[in-house]
User: Fold ornithine decarboxylase from Eptatretus burgeri.
Amino acid sequence: MTFNVDAFFVADMGDILQKHLRWHEALPRVAPFYAVKCNNKPAVIRTLACLGTGFDCISKNEIDMVLQIGVNPQRIIFGNPCKKPSHIKHAAAHGVDTMVFDCEDELEKVARLHPTAKYARLFAQHSPYSCMCFHIRSLEQIHALYDVIFHNGLSWNNYLHHQR
Assistant:
């Protein structure tokens, strides 16, 4: 006897739509960026893309997945706080310009590999369910990072809040 072991995925796209509408009612001036690592199923990504959602990608593969669906690269944030050089170059080659940073070394690495990048500072909120670690910095350390951006003529984009 053989069993079909193919997995399948069941999702309520109506629930995604309702949550998207609630978001825009409650926070009309705040653009959501969906963390692809949470659920990278093409149906979910396509639904969110059709709704105009932005995407937070942490790897070359996630960037490619979102681009293949037809999302404008300006709606993609490269949200990995420690990016591989080859992934930075790949993002640059495909027009993904917004990069998260968490330390001076990351700023310098991105500036060297993607000179037209725009930078966004990640503010993480602790969660017991998180599998990612972000550095928590003092105000002095944060000011020093901003000084690096402005003294090197780098392009500041925005602040991001990450629910971990």
Q: What stands out?
A: The first strand starts at residue 33 and ends at 35. The longest helix spans residues 13-26.
